[in-house]
Task: inverse folding
């Protein structure tokens, strides 16, 4: 989830500015909360190139505020450590050279205490900065930085799950954690919603925050389609496995079948089969699979194969977005359209559209018509990744509250499996 | 170009049936013609996993008729060699196990004479079969097999260019060959066509042959756009190089920039720079670059970076198709709409829309709404490759005459460079 | 340095038994002392497959006593953690499956505090065990375990040097450390000792401790030879570099030249060249090269190329051993012959034969005539590594005091460079 | 078998000179004879980096005479093709840059007819050159070139066996060929010869031709030992397999066991097990294993493991050489000592010491005391490979008649299996 964004809306928003300082410390504190169960050893390990050590995430998010807010806008800001720019730049080519991503596990030092000091140093400077009246473009970048840090909160959880799974004793992150999808109350068999399609509007409408890749809002022509009212469950996935899902090449895209063979996939990531029983490693440790829970930690290839096995297909990202809006009665003139909504609607909503698992779509991650990246280095946030990845919609149990949107476009390569991702079925009518 | 197809139109077409036998031998003979300049050693070498030896192409295209036409439809057909099914199946999982693609260069035997005998054996059986009245579904498969063989004619040329380039003495395929793009008569600076967009129809209309991936024909909503009337030339590409095109990361998609660094790209494939002069290896051998010729042997990443450098973008495959139709005055009820047309139109056409180089588009290779693969093993022809690839439109100097269509969807991974591919610019209005 | 050994002498040695408990706690404590400057993050990182995390070394040495002493000989010993057997077995196939070597950096847990508790648990049990009168074969295994732990003390220093060098800030292990070779007082130009050779005895004479690979003592026939009285210095190595040592293939073994080209060697490991000045990373951090210090962190290939450039060669391990014995006046009946000796001798000794850097020899690491590995799992200590490695003799500044012997055979693959290894020249007469 | 050599004896030998021209054409013709069963496709393929295409061997051996004889010694010699120097230099760094070894399978051109013309061109020039009275150093190089070409005759057979085995249909080289080891007449259980050892002389005595690595002749001290009178057979090997030879790590060197696991070894190369029957691919095609034939196509690691399973060991190269000399009654003053001898001796000889399979020894391939490589580029023939390889003694059914010697040192890396190599057991007494 290399997503980043820019404020698409620069009109003065007094409330936001007043609330910014409060929100800054809430978000920063939430990051630190996540590391409570983790020792210095846990926070240092990198289990694969795509995963970053926890302590790296904590430093990188501070570097973001230092580099994009404090250095340009706070006149006397004193950099914490000149060497950190090289270490904690993730991928901003415009900012200068950077330490190779796949070697982040070698950063024995700075250690945990150095990085805590770094966070405090940046927080103190930001406190001062936000207490004064920051110019609107700086406030926009602060807000971007907070959304950015929320994305890394999700990455911290995804990544540490992978790290702990690779640790040979597979310790739990936390026994009490609620950070796994809950069972669904509804039955296994999905109900279908039929939608008419037509010329519909999709994308961000510039009210409230959105990443640059969510816009511009624009019209598209949708053919009629149907979409399932719930996500695919573990019970359904076990049926797929038992029906030879992982051994029938005709169900798979060619690249997906190559992954099955080369990587030895026989179940979702983190699953194991012992004594006729499926178990799964989650942040709570290894547990018996609950059939009524939404399947997750599957790749796009697996989602696509499952859909074909079901005589269905994945929805496009536009079908997904349109269905969510339609079924909760959104008006495009309604200013709440871009924000996550938990209220009940009179129409029957799409269950689990948010907060359980990310949902793979049939859409490649490509720019919307008229897309323009943000000006400056933060323009590298999203646009340059628009190749070779697939869009996921919704949000997951790892996503911080309030971070999701109906227009949100998450994206990962089709073989990625350490994302908390599942699927919802669709079909033509 | 792993494209394959099925007849989307099964109505009786008497003319086609009568002409099928003639066309069969024309196509088969054209394949053999291509190998005239090549010795047994040339036809045996595999220069990378994506490239197949010439003799493998010759055998595989025969295997296609044997497997999908003769075995199911010709009662007493006697298989030439039982072992060939394993060797010359390209990727049809339904047909059985197959020899690994990246080891085709180890097939020292069957040798050239065996493979010529195989072709003759299949041709003799097909002669008999076509002389009788083949059932419509068999005739459809013959036509598919001929389009398939035409695709392999293009692959033979692409692949042998790569083989000869890797041969340390870099011999020419043929001194007299006209198999390279010709210079453009028009100047370097493109003219722009402005198009209004709107709800337009794209895709194959089921009149005449088309591969399954070209349909169904359907409506989409296009925003207004502009498109260049000509292809980008070598002269423009040299400007891009001289302006640091290969050393400025901000011009590139992240995956593209990784390819530039990891693979050392500094110019199109086959180019070399000596004594302030650019040369290029083509089927005619190594030659000085002609600035007025269309640039080719570039990846999608390079095309995309060039477009960004030009403050433009690549057209989507639908913008491309719509522009070609509009600018030559196609009517959607016109039965010629799907076929290549060389006649002059009253409106100003898109120059070089066919016959020079394939044109990278901004579109990922994905199924059209309502897409259904063909029934049976030939259903593996196209659909399973709809992941991780980009669409190219038009055709190239390597494409057999009559093989192109305005709805034709060629596709390759974004890093592929041994395709004869270039680009045309587009932009928003 | 995967060396391990067994007592070749099992006669009752009362003094040794009485002193064993004292020595046990001295050695164990010395290991812990080495980790004082290192935080949990430092002790967790694995910088390449050949390097183990510090905390792994600390656990593995405890596992050795638990597995080979306490479990077989201490009736009621209670294993600290059943899972550790899998984690901290280095390579003893007989003992059971083990965690892959190249994934030791993923062991986030057990953390440092767990491993300290493990050490204390084993130490308490050993304290009890040694207070009673352990049977001779157990005492032998304790002594083996202490020599084993001393070997890992050297590995801890070698490995952490590599870890800190790979940490992007390249922190020092300790500012005050004396753990680097000292300058030589003698001039650069070596003096040569001429030796007559003849039938001489080499190998361990079974008085005192020795690893199994040091014996049996046996006679060999040596031709006359000469050997340099001192080690090659940094000054000489810089001359080699400046004379094109790393760019002239005729100086190199074929495998060595391949390593130079493929790995980009242009100087010893840890060296850098900036502003016409050579620096070196040691445990003290990055420092300017001292020309009078012995060169180290070179591979066997480099040592061999340097010798050829010097119109000399490396000594065989037998020439080395014979010269050391001869020049300090050893008698083969002298019981001190196997132990390191720091006293002055009347003859002119070989300078730096111990305590500076390991010395590459021309000898492949092979069994001596009549070699028999120790009985039981500890028989895997040495013999199975007798392939593809070269012998080093002497000892280094990282070697614990008292651990070296004139018969000691250290061994590493010819491309290894993270060993503190240099060379001494020899030639035919 | 990268062995090459130089004449160690430069005294005028009139007989040799007179016979040189005859011998030249005999050897050259024998090379061409070997290619009779092979088409151009067969001669072009490279099945792994260690294997060269047949046509490359044919060109390289001609390049050897062109480069080391004709160019320096024949004043008006006209080079056949300037580009060939780059293509057909195997590894002589002093001669200039060369085409990468692992890409020799890409040399589609020059084709077979070009290479035949090259051979004829060199032969014609050599005919002229040898008709005149070549200077002694040139005659020495011609003789070296002929021994070199004989080595490549063996390589052609070894390599084409690997090529044809990798060709998916696994065609036979020749149905009538006798190029496989014959069954032994003696029973399976070996008899042992006991030898006293002592100070003995080994190595080439400078009478007749020898490669530089065979000398200098020198004295060594051998402990008493015993050696088997025959080679290990397929029957014994099947016992080893059935007794878990490939699944018991304690039988193996650590590197050997890693090869077993990583490469999946379960039998000698070219063996397959179907329906309770072992078959083997030889130049005659796939055949049922004959239990009485000497086992071959095993690595050093396998030979070493088999010996350990047999409670024996491999002989050192000096034990082997001494035993062969002793048991056939060689006198060191006997001028035939260096040549293969087929006559009966009064003492009981070592069966199969020549002509069946190469015999792995326990000796690393290292220089003899006083070894000096030949002067000039041919000095790269042997010495630079003295690292990481093991010595094989004897000769094989692929070795040309007259090419073997009791002092001959063949060498390969310990994992090599495409050599026709087996083993003879030895042990301490």
Result:
């Amino acid at each position: 989830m290399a997503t980043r964004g820019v404020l698409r809306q620069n009109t003065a928003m007094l409330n936001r500015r007043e609330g910014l300082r409060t929100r800054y410390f809430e978000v920063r504190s939430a990051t630190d909360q996540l590391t409570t169960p983790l020792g210095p050893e846990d926070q240092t390990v990198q289990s694969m190139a795509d995963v970053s050590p926890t302590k790296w995430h904590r430093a990188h998010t501070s570097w973001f505020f230092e580099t994009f807010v404090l250095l340009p806008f706070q006149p006397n800001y004193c950099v914490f450590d000149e060497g950190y720019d090289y270490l904690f730049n993730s991928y901003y080519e415009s900012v200068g050279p950077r330490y190779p991503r796949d070697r982040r596990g070698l950063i024995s030092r700075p250690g945990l205490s150095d990085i805590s000091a770094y966070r405090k140093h940046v927080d103190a400077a930001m406190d001062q900065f936000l207490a004064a009246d920051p110019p609107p473009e700086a406030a926009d970048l602060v807000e971007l930085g907070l959304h950015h840090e929320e994305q890394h909160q999700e990455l911290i959880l995804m990544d540490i799950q992978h790290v702990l799974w690779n640790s040979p004793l597979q310790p739990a992150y936390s026994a009490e954690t609620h950070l796994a999808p809950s069972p669904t109350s509804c039955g296994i068999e999905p109900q279908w919603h039929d939608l008419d399609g037509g010329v519909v509007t999709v994308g961000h409408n510039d009210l409230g925050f959105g990443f640059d890749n969510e816009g511009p809002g624009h019209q598209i022509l949708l053919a009629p389609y149907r979409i399932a009212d719930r996500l695919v469950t573990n019970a359904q996935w076990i049926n797929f496995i038992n029906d030879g899902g992982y051994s029938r090449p005709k169900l798979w895209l060619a690249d997906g079948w190559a992954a099955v063979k080369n990587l030895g996939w026989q179940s979702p990531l983190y699953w194991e089969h012992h004594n006729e029983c499926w178990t799964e490693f989650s942040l709570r440790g290894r547990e018996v699979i609950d059939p009524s829970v939404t399947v997750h930690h599957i790749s796009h290839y697996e989602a696509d194969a499952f859909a074909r096995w079901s005589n269905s297909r994945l929805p496009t990202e536009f079908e997904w977005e349109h269905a969510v809006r339609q079924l909760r009665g959104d008006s495009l003139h309604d200013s709440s359209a871009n924000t996550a909504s938990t209220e009940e609607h009179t129409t029957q909503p799409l269950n689990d559209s948010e907060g359980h698992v990310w949902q793979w779509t049939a859409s490649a991650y490509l720019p919307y018509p008229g897309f323009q990246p943000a000006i400056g280095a933060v323009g590298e946030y999203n646009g340059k990744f628009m190749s070779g990845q697939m869009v996921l919609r919704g949000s997951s149990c790892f996503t911080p509250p309030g971070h999701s949107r109906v227009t949100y476009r998450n994206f990962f390569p089709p073989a990625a499996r350490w994302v908390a991702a599942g699927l919802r079925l669709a079909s033509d009518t």
